[in-house]
Design brief:
This protein is an alpha+beta fold. The protein has one domain: Ribonuclease Z/Hydroxyacylglutathione hydrolase-like (Metallo-beta-lactamase, Chain A, 4-Layer Sandwich), CATH 3.60.15.10. The chain is 39% helix and 24% strand. The protein contains nine helices and 14 strands. A hairpin with a 2-residue loop joins strand 7 and strand 8.
């Protein structure tokens, strides 16, 4: 019995030691260590969640936030982990809060991997016209998967060994679907592909808000999204005006399943969703 107690204590100590986050005490940032070589972090001056991957010989960042001051602090924080060069920047889509730091890191010698109109680019060089591009970094393989959902150039980043997926803005855990380019078709393509890559241990990282989501919560998001789109599309098919749709009581109640928002925000998101659904139905 005593041996079992010691074994438990050793196991607890080992887990704590392995995942003791060295960035936890860094000023102006909140962070979480996802594995022994992968972190997610945000600045108090930005709501963008930044991925930090420690490769064997270099560092890779996902969506570093906007602003030279923020990124100067980020580099200083990274130097508490390693003096390896920051070699790659991955953009999950082309909105300014996700690409705004590209020039900062290019000046430091980094290369940018992004998607434009369904094609993957390494800086300005076309490297693939497929919807999937794989990067082998030695101690990990990353699959970059392209979708048309939130934008026309969405990318989710799947770390195979770590069993972690960075979702960009294709999924936000506490708000309505943001599939303004691909509509419901694009949103459910992202959801279904992500679920096919996931198990109960998979960590899903959103680009904004709380860092971490698990598969069960993501399944709940899918169910709520189905109700959201079914109601909006039913009202659309009935020929209802935008003014009638944003005041539909059933849709308002469905929206509260995500999280209660102001009426103004709700109406704004409904209008964007209706426009996207009408475009993809043509």
């Amino acid at each position: 019995m005593r041996l079992n107690k010691y074994a438990i204590l050793i196991a607890v100590f080992w887990v704590s030691f392995t995942y003791a986050n060295p960035l936890q005490q860094v000023r102006d940032f909140t962070s979480e260590q996802l594995s022994d070589n992968l972190f997610v972090l945000k600045s108090t001056g930005s709501n963008t969640n930044v991925g930090i991957f420690m490769g064997e010989t270099f560092i890779l960042l996902i969506d570093p936030f906007v602003g030279n001051a923020n990124n100067t602090k980020l580099v200083s924080a990274i130097r508490k982990l390693s003096d390896k060069p920051i070699k790659y920047i991955i953009n999950t889509h082309s909105h300014s809060d996700h690409i705004g730091a590209n020039s900062f890191y290019i000046e430091l010698g980094a290369d940018v991997i992004s998607n434009r109109n369904g094609q993957f680019y390494f800086n300005n060089e076309l490297i693939s016209s497929e919807d999937k591009y794989t990067i082998d970094v030695g101690n990990e393989k990353l699959d970059l998967l392209h979708f048309i959902s939130h934008t026309t150039d969405d990318v989710i980043v799947h770390f195979r060994k770590n069993n972690i997926i960075f979702m960009g803005d294709t999924y936000m855990h506490d708000t309505y679907p943001h599939a303004y380019a691909g509509g419901s078709k694009g949103q459910f393509e992202v959801i279904n592909k992500t679920l096919s890559l996931s198990n109960d241990s998979t960590k899903l990282i959103t680009a904004h808000g709380r860092f971490l989501t698990k598969k069960a919560e993501f399944l709940s998001f899918k169910e709520k999204s189905e109700l959201w789109y079914e109601k909006i599309n039913a009202l659309n098919e009935q020929g209802e005006s935008m003014e009638v749709i944003v005041r539909n009581e059933e849709l308002i109640n469905i929206s509260k399943m995500f999280r209660p928002f102001s009426l103004g925000y709700f109406e704004q998101q409904v209008r964007k969703t209706v426009v996207a659904e009408r475009l993809i139905s043509k």
